Each structure stands twice: as structure tokens, then as C-alpha cells.
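User: Modeling request: complex.
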Amino acid sequence: MKRRSFLTRLGAAGTMGAMGGLAAPAIFRGAGQAWAQGAEIPIGLLFSLTGEVAVVERTLHDAALLAIEEINAEGGINGRPLKVHIEDPASDPATYADRARRLFIRDNCVSVFGSYTSASRQAVLPVVEQRKGLYWYPTLYEGRECSRNIMYGGAVPNQQQQDFVPWLVENFGGRFYLLGNNYVYPKEENNVCKMLLDQLGGEAVHEEYVPLGHSDFSSVINRIRSTGPSLIFSTLVGDSDVAFARQFHAAGFDSAKMPVASLTRSEVEVAAIGGEAAAGHLSSAPYYMGYSSPENERFVEAYKSRYGGDQVTHFVSEAAYFQVYQFKAAIEKLDPAEITPEAIRDAAVGVTLKAPQGEILVDPNLHTHLWPKIARWKSDGQAEILVQSAERIAPEPYWAYAGETCTGEGLVRS
Amino acid sequence: METFINQLFAGASLASILLMVALGLAIIYGAMGVINLAHGEFVMLGAYVTWALQTFLGIGLLPALPIVFLAIAAVGWGVERAVVSRLYRRPLDTILATWGIGIVLQQLVRIGIGPESRFIAGPGILSGNTGFGGVVLSNYRIFVLVFAIAIFAATWALMAKTEFGRKLRAVIQNREISECYGIRAEKVYAMTFAYGAGLAGLAGALISPLVNTTPSMGTYLVVDAFLVVVVGGVGSIFGTAVASGIVGETTAFFSMLLNDTVGRIAVLVAIILFIRFRPSGLFPQIVRR
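Assistant: Request completed. Predicted assembly structure:
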């Protein structure tokens, strides 16, 4: 026993000695000084440019890079340009973790912007918490997460659904056909939807999950025909959403009588679905490319002139764009000597910003107050906004879970 | 009853798509013993050629079909000459090589054309549905079904009735002896590979109005096609046709009873059990080795 504690102490002392004598000044003080005094502020971009998720992440990468270039064109933040380190995690969660480590350790980034899927965010989570870094995640997601090292720029279920579901029940009726891909996001969204339907006196006539990438919906369409719901409440993503929309349209359903109400369909999917098949269906999201605000017009124009006139912006790329500006606003509040990921996080709380979707605010729980909008798709591939939320909606990542709240101190269980 | 007929048709429609994708795979494997893991990418290229013809030249899907067939057959021919033909003595290495080719093709499309999904309009004359009572059949799916059967018949005729088919069967039986009789086996192989690739391209063109056209679209399809080939008996085109019917209808049946996720699992379990008791598939090829 004694011997063991002696060894432990020896080990600890040895480590401290070694670090005190050699390593510490090089790594720790060096890093702090780099952030405080270096001419450039190092940040990372961690979006997949290859592999399956590249379809979406390429646009997020482009949007974030656009914001970075705009900031640098105006002389950087407090006179210091952003130095951007780009990594391609190739759509593989393990590679995300590896590249995040590289960005935080080797490149010494004060913040990394990245990820589209929850799987990749959760792969980065342990890395960013261990390195005490800051990870900016732009996507809407299922909630039930409350890290102090991730800035969540997208909507959580309550922000997309608390106005949307009552509106749908009122306009189309309460018989919902819940259809999603088989993973965590659709299931959590549907839990919230069923909770709302219970309160409103509606019902889920059928709840169904198809494998990711599933592309033959004949059986689903036959089942929709035989159950006759008021609407299809869809959390299908990517390929499945496009295939379903095209086959639903080809099956001859009338979008005015039985629309698909989607939480995940954006301009990207609509472009692949085709205007004719997408027209008349509904979405709930904080941002649409066709939303008219001076900030959005500027964003869309800058995006198109940088990446080509046929490109679209959407509700995730908007967040990837404004999060860089939230980062900028946070740094501007800080004394250059005290720039650390944690100081940036604390400074970002309470930051308000005119984003393309409207004026947004960072909550103490690190999620963002957003402006959800209900929209109907038109045949030109753009959305017509039907209902703008009356006020900015606060993020409640644990909305469907009584007794759990995400706060500025992390997750609180009562 | 109506639901049942609708579901029966759903299964037949699924089967026709599977048949289109799997037929090329079965021919290439049957004739050459090459497991072509780039087959899904040929399907994807077929969809992209259709997209390019439609977007840049205004050629609709139906008139594009022969062009797509020739274009992807040319790609297949190139791949066979450049890579696969050098590996006939090392059949296991062709798996790795074709897999690599698949990755390269996919990434070339992603870099050259862009990763975003593309829209391909279906033929206008085939939009709409044919219905009687509660039975509703999509016209386009009826067309795909008929087309797949026609392609199958044409392939069978090519194998059984033409001189090319006779040469191919001779080469399959015994390459060395066939060469002694003056058949140029390498030419037969190149043509077969090109034909199989062309069929994959046609499949890609046909499914493009139903699914999402992205660089990675072939990956999912090729897995199902392999299942069909394995169940049918590798190399047998009749087996492939019967197996795609069985797999399509079984999937539709389980999807109706349960749901698509459980249905898929059930089908996979059924196939594993089937292979356990009939390892060479439904119609094993009898070839003297």
C-alpha cells in the first residue's frame, strides 16, 4: 500500500517535474500566447468534402468559408485575420474525431466549425470536451444534448414543432402518418410530435421508419392509401426524402388535400425532387432561401457570386454562415490577452445578431433562439412563407423530457 | 384484396428494378468469373449520362436510353481493357480492383460534376396512374416492368441464338479449347463486360426518375443486386430473373405485414437460411472446370 502510494507520488512528481522543466512553457504558455498575440486567429473547418455526406456538408463548408472570407476582407477581427485550417473527414465518424484532434492539438484552433450528422457530432464530442475546445454545430438536431463545448446553431424539436403541429392540425386535421428514417433524429422528433398530438386531440395513425438510404416507397405508399391520413409528417432525410417525394407525387396524391409536412426538406432536396413534385408540400424551418430580409438578400447574392448562380442556400448553410459571425461577435467582446475557447463560449452567450433569418440570440445553454417559419414549396423550387412565428423561439433541447433542463450550468435534473 | 394486388405490383416493380441491375452483374460473373464491385457505379454513371443528355441537350429519358447504353458500355469496355483484362489469372484481385475503380468513378463524378443531387424528369407520356377500383398502378412502373422483361428476353436471345452467344458459351466452357478453334476469348470478354456495364447504365437511367441521383446512389443498389445473383445461382440469367422476382415479392410481402425496416431484415435472414441449405443458389451453373 505504502509502496504503491509512494510510486504514484513519484510518478506524479516526475510528470510535473518534467512538464514544469521542459514541456509546459513550450506547450501551455506557448498556446496561450499564440491566441493572445499571434497575428492570426486559428480556426478549423471540419466538413466532409468526400463521401456520402459531402452532398450537404460541401454547402456548409462553402457557407462558413464565405463568412470567413468576408471577415478577412474587412481586415479580420480586431485587426487580426482568421487563419483557416481545412480538414476533410470523408463522411466517416471516426475520422471526424481524428481530424478534430488534429485541429485542436496540432493547429491549435480556438474554434472548429463542422458536422452535419449527429453521428459525426457525437464522435467529436469527447475530443472537444477533453481538449476544452469549442465546436460550432450548425444543423438542426434531435436535442437531448447539453455539452458545454458545443455551440448549437440549428433548431431543436420544440423550435420546429411547437407552432407547426397545431397549425397542421387546424388546417388539415389530426390524423398524422409519421414517416422517418430509422435512426435517432426522426424518433425523437416523432416523440415530440406525438406529445403535441396528445394535447391537441390528434392521433398518429401510423408510425414507420425505413432504413437510411431506402429508396423504394411502393409499400409505404400503398399503406398511406389504405390508412388515409390527414397528412404525412416526414422526417426522412436525403436520398430517402427525394425518392419518397417523387414516388408520392407519381402515385397521384393531391398535395392540397394530403400534404407532406417535413422537418428536414430544404432547397437542396427540393432541387432534386423537382418543382412539380415538391409544389404544395409544407416545411417548418427557421430559414428559406426566398425569405426576404436585407441580410438574406446580401447573403444569397454573396453566395451565388462566390459559388455560382445555380447554387442554393438552405437552413443549415445559413446557420453555418451566421455561426462564424457569432464567433466574431464573441471575440470582439474579449480582451486579446484572454482569448481561449472557454472565454469565447462565455462571451458568445447573449450575443444578438442580425442573421438572414432575423435577429437571433445565443442562449446560456449554448443553443440559439431562432425564428421558425411555416412554408409551402412552389414549383420554382423556392418556398412561400405562410406563417412567420410571432416571436423568437427559445431552444429547449429537453422539451419532451420532464424534469430535465439544459441550462448555462449544463444539464439539470430536478 | 385491393391492398394485396397493389402490394403484389409493388413487389413486381421492385423485382423489375432488381433484375435490371442484377442482370449485368450476373452476365459478367457468369462469363468471366469477375465479381464486379464497380457495377453500382456503372448504374450511377447511367443516371448521370441521362441527366447530362436531358439538361444540356434536351433529350428526354426514353430517347436517351440507347445513348446511355452505348456510353456506359464504352466505359465498361475501357475498364475491362485497362484493368480487368490484366487480372484474369488472379480472380480474387479483380474484387479489389473493381472496388477501387468504383471509388475512383464515384469520386470523379463528385469532383467533376459536384456532390449535389441532380434532378431528372420522367417521361411525360408515362406520368399518371392506371387504376381500376382500389387498385392503382403507376404507368412509369408498368413501363419499367415491361422494359425489364424485354431486356431479359433480349439478353437470353443474345446468349442462346446468336453467334456471339455461342462463342461466349464456348469460352465459358473452356477458354483454351475455344481459342484453339479460333475464338478470340479476350474480345469476347471485353464485349461481355461492355454489355453488362451497358445494362447497368440502362438500369441507372430507368430508376433515375424514382430515386435521388447522387454520386453514391449505386452503393445501395449493388448490394441488393448481389443478393439476387447469389440467390439465383451465380452466372445463371434465368436464376437471376427468378430470384429478383422472389426477392422483390418477398420484400413487398414482409413490408406489408411488418414494415420496411423489419421487412428488410426478414428478407436478409431468409436469404442467409436459403444459402445455408442451397449454397449454389436456385439454378447452379454446371460447368466443367
